[in-house]
Structure formats: structure tokens, C-alpha cells
Amino acid sequence: xxxxxxxxxxxxxxxxxxxxxxxxxxxxxxxxxxxxxxxxxxxxxxxxxxxxxxxxxxxxxxxxxxxxxxxxxxxxxxxxxxxxxxxxxxxxxxxxxxxxxxxxxxxxxxxxxxxxxxxxxxxxxxxxxxxxxxxxxxxxxxxxxxxxxxxxxxxxxxxxxxxxxxxxxxxxxxxxxxxxxxxxxxxxxxxxxxxxxxxxxxxxxxxxxxxxxxxxxxxxxxxxxxxxxxxxxxxxxxxxxxxxxxxxxxxxxxxxxxxxxxxxxxxxxxxx
Length: 272
Description:
Layout: H1 35-44, H2 55-62, H3 66-79, E1 82-85, E2 88-91, H4 93-99, H5 103-123, E3 126-133, E4 136-143, E5 158-160, H6 165-172, H7 176-185, H8 198-211, E6 214-217, E7 224-232, E8 238-247, H9 253-271
Antiparallel strand pairs: 1-2, 3-4, 3-8, 4-5, 6-7, 7-8
Helix pairs in contact: 1-3, 5-9, 6-8
């Protein structure tokens, strides 16, 4: 019987390297090496304009191997996250169901909606409620009259902070680091009126902080202007922004700003 079999430590040959556990394992592995890292681009390949996508188009948009996309797409169909449409795929109803369970956004939307409906009745213009995510605004709700703005914005759609009224309202009352990140990412023009100068944008934000209301004049779409106010919750944290969008010739700065302020105050009181 040897010492090793009795539990004594084995003797390593001279010069042998003792393996050590990595005290700092990689905390940021390549996401594309994981299953979820491959599933995400498949789901995100669908845009608001896509009803269905073929397997070949999913492969092209994701850059993932065809066999992998096919296998994962089949599993996503089983889970209800994708649906088959003939030989193509479309986003599944299960995604919509799960999205409605996001607590914070659902509560904000439910609280804001009655006040948005009041604004619609008072102004007969398009009403948005948006929140901040990364360098964009995401629209939680949008209601519009028959003559309202159908294009450019949509529920769950994104637009940049720097050139939307809701985005400017949020940016004005957010930490300065967010402004720096927006500028660093670049101010790209949507129209000839889009503010692309950091200095001009900073001046706009200073005015918004002083007056409490943001205006975007034809920066996203020619012929349309938006006004927005920040919406605060309990203990004054910023939760989002509320806006009115109308053809420039129909915008009523005085009347619309008063209606926006009243609605934002009502949302704040309801959130308490």
C-alpha cells in the first residue's frame, strides 16, 4: 500500500508546474459563444416593418451559421417566441404576452393613459409618452386622432434623445454624463433642421431646465413640431416625458404647453 492510497499527498516531480485556479475568470465572455447570444440577434432581426423573414434572411441579418439559426428557430417556435408562416418565420404571440408583464413600464403606461386621452380631446393632436433607454427614447404609448401623425413614431419604437422633444426633456433633467455620452455617439441629422451642434444642444437643454418645456421644430420630420414636458414620480425622480406632436402651423405654444403641464402634474400625483 502506498502513501498516496492512505491519503498522504503525492510527491510532484521536481520542476513540475502546479496548476492554479484562475482567481479572475473572464467576466465578459463573447456573447456570441452562448446560446442566448445567438438567440438575441435572431429575435432582434425583425424590424417593425417585417411581417415575416425567411431562414436565408435571418442568416444574413444575424451573421450566425445557417444550421444554428435553423435549429434555434425551431426551438423558438416550440417556445412560442417565433411562429411559422409557411416557410418563413414571424415573431410569436408569446413575446407580446411577456412584454405586457414588464411591471414598471406597464404601471407607467396605465397611469399615463387617461391623461393622454384628456390631452387628445383638448388638442386633437398626437400624444406620446416616452421613457429613456440608453441613448434613445422608447415610446410606451401613443394615441392619435384620425388626422394625427402615423409615421416616424410607434409604441415600443425608438428615436434618439437629442432630436426629439421627449428626448430633450429627459436629457435636460438627467445627469451631465448622459449628455456627454450622446455627444460622443454623434449627432446625426434627420432633416436640415436637426440640431447637430453640441453647443446648440447644450443651450437648448439649459433653456428647457429654466422653462420646464422642450420644443423640437421639424428635427425629425419636416412640417411637424413637438412640445414635451418631463414627468416626475414620487421624491422627484424623472420617470419619462409627455409630448404633443402637430403640424407646425397648428402648434399652439401657449395652449399646448399649459395642457402638457397639467397632464404631467396629474400623472405625478397618480404615481404617488
